[in-house]
């Protein structure tokens, strides 16, 4: 069973199984908190908001019939869907691997809409700075993966997964470094993002 894990403030790992997620099926998930929390980056949250609803113009939605026009431009290996683009694509997987080590995000092998719901349930305490940071990271990763996809498709500009990861890390660090002074970040979080 693939798990979706989080770390408590004490650093102890708390594992929530996929089954725990299933247990709450039927209850409405409030994902707005994770999208629009006080530290969110508006342009990132907007793309995530569209992605969370499956509303980005991915190739599977544009080219229903033409198979050869649906290839993912990040890997050229699979058809582009929301689920592929943000999860199963080897490019995106490399990006997530690079940012997960700094955050508490551990994606399960659920499909994209269920994974987003699971994240919304896991990081639902916006008084917890780790949860806010998880929201920033998820939104930033989705934004930069989508941006890289668009740059390749429309501008023939290519960045590596590592370079995309660095853009995400820089955006998150920049946001955290510019928080209003009343926001005190835990030391471990500061260290994780090289802010000390
Ligand atoms: Zn791909």
From TrEMBL:
GO terms for molecular function: RNA-directed DNA polymerase activity. Pfam families: zf-RVT (PF13966). Keywords: Nucleotidyltransferase, RNA-directed DNA polymerase, Transferase. Residues 15-96 form the Reverse transcriptase zinc-binding domain. This is REVERSE TRANSCRIPTASE ZINC-BINDING DOMAIN-CONTAINING PROTEIN-RELATED-RELATED. It comes from Salix viminalis.
